[in-house]
Amino acid sequence: MNRLADATSPYLLQHADNPVDWWPWSEEAFAEAKRRDVPVLISVGYAACHWCHVMAHESFENEQVGALMNDNFVSIKVDREERPDVDAIYMTATQAMTGQGGWPMTVFATPDGTPFFCGTYFPRPNFVQLLQSVTTAWREQREAVVRQGASVVEAIGGAQAVGGPTAPLDAPLLDAAAGKLASEYDATNGGFGGAPKFPPHMNLLFLLRHHQRTRDPQSLEITRHTAEAMARGGIYDQLAGGFARYSVDAHWTVPHFEKMLYDNALLLRLYTQLWRLTGDPLARRVARDTARFLADELHRPGQGFASALDADTDGVEGLTYAWTPGQLIEALGEEDGRFAADLFTVTDDGTFEKGMSVLRLARDVDDAAPEVRARWQRVVGGLLAARDTRPQPARDDKVVAAWNGLAITAIAEFQQVAALYASPQDEDANLMDGVTIVADGAMRDAAEYLAAVHLVDGRLRRVSRDGKVGEPAGVLEDYGSVAEAFCALHQLTGEGRWLTLAGELLDTALAHFAAPGGAFYDTADDAERLVARPADPTDNATPSGRSALIAGLVVYSALTGETRYREAAEAALATVAPIVGRHPRFTGYAAMAGEALLSGPYEIAVATEDPAGDPLVAAARRHAPPGAVVVAGRPDQPGVPLLADRPLVDGRSAAYVCRGFVCQRPVTSVEELVVELGGAGSSQ
Fold this sequence. Notes:
Layout: H1 10-14, E1 22-24, H2 27-36, E2 40-45, H3 50-60, H4 63-72, E3 74-79, H5 84-98, E4 105-109, E5 115-119, H6 124-140, H7 142-159, H8 171-183, H9 201-214, H10 217-232, E6 246-247, E7 255-256, E8 259-260, H11 261-278, H12 281-298, E9 308-309, E10 312-313, E11 316-317, H13 325-332, H14 334-343, H15 370-387, E12 395-396, E13 399-400, H16 401-420, H17 429-454, E14 455-456, E15 459-460, E16 463-465, E17 468-469, H18 476-493, H19 496-512, H20 545-560, H21 563-582, H22 588-599, E18 602-607, H23 615-622, E19 629-633, E20 654-659, E21 662-663, H24 670-677
Parallel strand pairs: 1-3, 2-3, 18-19
Antiparallel strand pairs: 2-4, 4-5, 6-7, 8-9, 9-12, 10-11, 13-16, 14-15, 16-17, 18-20, 20-21
Helix pairs in contact: 4-6, 5-7, 8-9, 8-21, 9-10, 9-11, 9-22, 11-12, 11-16, 12-17, 13-14, 16-17, 16-18, 16-23, 18-19, 18-20, 19-20, 20-21, 20-22, 21-22, 23-24
């Protein structure tokens, strides 16, 4: 009997009709394995995962394989996005046993959850042989199997340990981290390392803040070059905006086509800040179109942001997105079709599969003549219309609290920067206005949804779908990312309730996730007990729970002036600092928070009757130093600590600039404010 039909996870629902007697992750599943005296087979994946679909088609939809699994195992299907704690433990085990990890992840465990054999994708013949071998070993070599499991658990415990060495995350360490990133930088293609190449959004956000603090030109150039290379590459959707998960090559040409909410949120934040600091028109366009992608493709009214678009369409990867020269001509006509082929590097040989090409931008259109830009936009519109007639990838409608938090923060920052550059003279001013209106509505809707649906009895839940909250408890990254998002919304709107909610989330995290020596566990002290309690300090696809919480603590302490939150952030950063020095590619979000603390962060309050149109507010946001907080509104506005006891000066708007809770005299002119901020917002 397959028990997945009532799951909230789209990934689990994809397996609800398998001939496998799947169980969701539950105590009952392990009790059943104990009753039957059989091992547990734990299969971990996610809805947008290409190779998860392949293994499902090859093995889990096969009657003979299903029978073999049902006769000899209790099989548990896990959505890694719904249960990151389960995924973290068994991924550590998989990496300890095989030296690598990935999804689908295939784990064999004892009835108490102790893993004894781990792997990833197995073709059906190999998987059948593995099932038979594990069955035999369980029956005939049980003692050896149990010993193997015990050694794996010991390895997991060591990998997830807290209480290691600490060090201050100071300027020399952050300078060294930037230098090490520069030494690993791909000066030809942008980014870091070789294939496959993932968007290094968190590292680039760190380098942008590092450049602001130090004026290091190399940090800015690495960011500029990588951002441009990604935006011109096939990893970026040249028609509709939005980024794919990664490039299978080293030069951003052919993507793995899934589009994840977290990547696009972090990349929106990157291109927004690059636009703010440099005025780069390419960064402006990509930020705008990524915000539009989030609002149009992933937002569901009244239900937050969905998690992802699948890599596959009708079981074929890239079916929606790839083109031949002939298809371009068919969609656009001979003349525009050939123009599009040249512009987007679509050749007879192809760059993808079967003579197909993924669109890449070969020309600089942002600074081109008006007639060239007009033709490009006409071509994009025609190709989008043609693409809309093709089969479309499925959407994973599951709402993940942490990822929605990342999206809210990114859109809040985008809204602020878009307001700085608003000009009726822009040729696409109407388009920008439309995007900001829709994105603002999506952001506020998602925040209201998190507050109403994901907050249950004062605690966060990890996921929901179709307005129904799931059972999995929120993990540390949920608390950190949502708290940071509510702080961003507080700065954008001036509404005190968002700051209040952020403080409540941070207090819960400090009370239930704290570990010895300033560290944090990824799961709460009253969460379900696993074979180990995860506490991963490294940033990977998303900020680690620790980094996310640190970022939330830093911004909240600056907005409220409450030093205990800053002290908690500093202590947690000290536990990550040794890793920042050795492996900065895996600590970008933590290093970004470290730059904010090193800068101050600045606390900027603008007492004004016109927060939307006051030039002082625009100057504060335009020139904000790394990690600065900016709040604007009427003096002594309820729920806004930075505006307390901050009056107008002689009836005029006034900006109050503080750094590390030490304040300067108020200023009333833009020129004075820019001087106090040191011009730190500009790199033009």
